[in-house]
């Protein structure tokens, strides 16, 4: 016959077969009913942590097209399943209710911010890049052909991995920019 003492973990630990309290003595009904988020995921997507240039592997667990958990990827030769505190908290980067999902814009000489849809903001950026390239373009300098623009520059950050930095360098060079630098090298 079970008594109220049987529900008390310390009593189960002292009287049962688990004197160290590492197994059955420490488990409750609530513990038995807990299912991990990774076990209920529909799929697992391999990814790379976005925080620094180390490139730690991540496993992103997705259920109903929503991220439910992000963990280190044990198959990654770089991190072998480990993540730093920032990498471990990267789920918050994409699921936080405080994450900005709209583009905020303040017009020149404006005093108020306004929300823009992403397509409008991307068009504005493209127009400005083309305008800056056109206005700063140089065909020749001191009689030497240079085909460059001084109207565009890039300063990359340490959160970019090697592949992203490579693509940025290719993009800016293709646009004619020669001022391409990275914060990690400075």
From TrEMBL:
Report the top EC class in one word.
Answer: oxidoreductase
Q: Which Gene3D superfamilies does the annotation name? A: 3.40.50.740, ADC-like domains (2.20.25.90)
Q: Which UniProt keywords apply?
A: 4Fe-4S, Iron, Iron-sulfur, Metal-binding, Oxidoreductase
Name its co-factor(s).
[4Fe-4S] cluster
Would you tell me the protein name for this molecule? Formate dehydrogenase major subunit
EC number(s) per entry:
1.17.1.9
Native source organism of the sequence: Petropleomorpha daqingensis
Q: Name one GO cellular component term.
A: cell envelope
Q: Which residues form the 4Fe-4S Mo/W bis-MGD-type domain?
A: 42-98
Signal peptide range equals none
